[in-house]
């Protein structure tokens, strides 16, 4: 089957960084679905895994952790899906990725595709929706039923993939007052369209901008952009007994002592945790994605596609990686069809 893979970890400007390959079609066993991939999305995790390093793979490594497609076969233990079901999912970082014609994925982290979306628009959602949902509702403990309505959340990196769905979840489900960061007019407009109440610039003094808006502190912070750079600002801006969640790994030591006097919480979100460790609650991501699909079909949430780069092939995937590494992407980048 067709796939896009790598054997060496190279700069994205190198044509060999991602190449078109032929690999064996896998077979479903256990709880696995064999999915015929119709569309994929590209995320920063793809570029981080592909980043240059001194390592050579014996066989092509396939990346890609966002997909939508149709169930082509099921393992003997599958109970949630049947052949022919349209699905969407993010998969597991510990297994081959979805940049291939057919892909194996555990049914417990797969959702039924929103009926109102085509495959490319559905493929834009899983990884970021899981990340934002878990960060906001599981890690920060915000109520998805509106029990915290009126409280404030600062979303650092509002126009990115996770921020784009995070704004919607915080506004539509939680009823929070949403302050998002954006550094360009086009990204500011994007955040406002998705429901942000206020916009500030993450390149400038964040606490000062919040005070100018009338917020001496915020109840919650979702950091979707450069934890190291923004940690001190977050420590200053968070309210006493407030909560901060970040999805971006730190490069240096974080001065968490700055949170002590406020009894503030700092917590990580990594959406691959459940699949990576086979946690007893893995099926929570199946339920989560089904709920996202229901909300999409009810018109309460919207897809976050920023640009469709065309057919799934190595050249277009290299373009997607290059755009993400450039740091100017709004929403999600998707590709569809082989």
From TrEMBL:
Keyword hit for Cell cycle: no
Q: Would you say which domain of life the source belongs to?
A: Bacteria
Keyword presence, Disulfide bond: no
What Pfam families does the database record attribute to this sequence?
ADH_N (PF08240), ADH_zinc_N_2 (PF13602)
List each copy of the Enoyl reductase (ER) domain by range.
13-335
Tell me which Gene3D superfamilies the record gives. Answer: Medium-chain alcohol dehydrogenases, catalytic domain, NAD(P)-binding Rossmann-like Domain
Gene Ontology MF, one: zinc ion binding
Q: Spell out the protein name for this chain.
A: Zinc-type alcohol dehydrogenase-like protein
The source organism is Cupriavidus campinensis
Q: What is the lineage of its organism?
A: Bacteria, Pseudomonadati, Pseudomonadota, Betaproteobacteria, Burkholderiales
């Amino acid at each position: 089957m067709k796939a896009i893979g790598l054997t060496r970890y190279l700069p994205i400007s190198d044509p060999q960084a991602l190449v078109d390959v032929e690999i064996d079609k896998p077979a479903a066993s256990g709880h696995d679905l064999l999915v015929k991939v119709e569309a994929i999305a590209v995320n920063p995790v793809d570029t981080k895994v592909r980043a240059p390093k001194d390592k050579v793979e014996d066989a092509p490594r396939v990346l890609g952790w966002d997909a939508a497609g149709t169930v082509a076969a099921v393992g003997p233990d599958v109970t949630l899906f049947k052949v022919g079901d349209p699905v969407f999912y993010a998969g597991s970082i510990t297994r081959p990725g979805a940049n291939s014609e057919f892909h194996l994925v555990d049914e417990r982290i797969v959702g039924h595709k929103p009926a109102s979306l085509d495959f490319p628009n559905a493929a834009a959602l899983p990884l970021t929706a899981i990340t934002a949902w878990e960060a906001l509702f599981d890690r920060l403990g915000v109520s998805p039923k509106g029990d915290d309505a009126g409280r404030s959340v600062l979303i650092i990196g509002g126009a990115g993939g996770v921020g784009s769905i995070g704004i919607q979840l915080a506004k539509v489900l939680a009823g929070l007052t949403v302050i998002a960061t954006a550094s360009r007019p086009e990204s500011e407009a994007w955040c406002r369209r998705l429901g942000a109440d206020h916009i500030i610039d993450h390149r400038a003094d964040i606490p000062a901008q919040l005070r100018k808006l009338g917020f001496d502190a915020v109840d919650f912070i979702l950091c979707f952009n450069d934890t190291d750079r923004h940690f001190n600002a977050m420590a200053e801006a968070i309210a006493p007994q407030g909560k901060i969640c970040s999805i971006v790994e730190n490069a240096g030591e974080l001065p968490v002592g700055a949170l002590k006097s406020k009894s503030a919480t700092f917590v990580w979100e990594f959406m691959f945790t459940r699949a990576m460790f086979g946690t007893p609650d893995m099926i929570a991501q199946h339920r989560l994605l089904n709920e996202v699909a229901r909300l999409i079909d009810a018109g309460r949430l919207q897809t976050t596609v920023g640009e469709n780069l065309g057919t799934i092939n190595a050249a277009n995937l290299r373009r997607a990686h290059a755009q993400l590494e450039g740091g100017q992407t709004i929403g999600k980048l998707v590709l569809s069809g082989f």
